[in-house]
Amino acid sequence: MANIITGTKDNFASVINGELPVLVDFWATWCGPCRMVSPFIEQLADEYEGKVAFMKVNVDEEPELCEKYRVSSIPNLVLFKDGDMLDQSAGARPKAQIAQFIEQAL
Asked: What is the CATH number of the domain that holds 54?
């Protein structure tokens, strides 16, 4: 199983500025659509291992990151490459659409 990083204000910048593009999943434990997307994120983390890093940020625990990246609804996927935000996608999506979203960073 691929490693999915738990994002915090302390490690966020170092992860998004790493060698690989990063898909960040802003989520919450109480969010039903977030729980629907979570297995897709885990599967894609395995499929893209070594090509894309994956990070999950709990919005209840990291409100500063939500504010900085203007996350107002969840689930919210944010794609970073070389530290820059490439794109953002709010709402639950099927696995195939999330994979297409990731592909723009490769």
From this structure: 3.40.30.10
CA–CA dist 89, 77 (Å, integer): 5
Quote the number of domains for the chain. Answer: 1
Are 58 and 29 in contact by the 8 Å Cβ rule? The answer is: yes
Catalytic site residues? 31, 34
For the stretch 70-97, pLDDT in tens is: 999 999 999 999 999 999 999 999 999 9
Q: How many CB atoms neighbour CB 6 within 10 A?
A: 11
pLDDT in tens, 14-49: 999 999 999 999 999 999 999 999 999 999 999 999
Q: Confirm if 85 and 69 have CB atoms less than 8 A apart.
A: yes
Name the residue range of residue 66's domain: 4-103
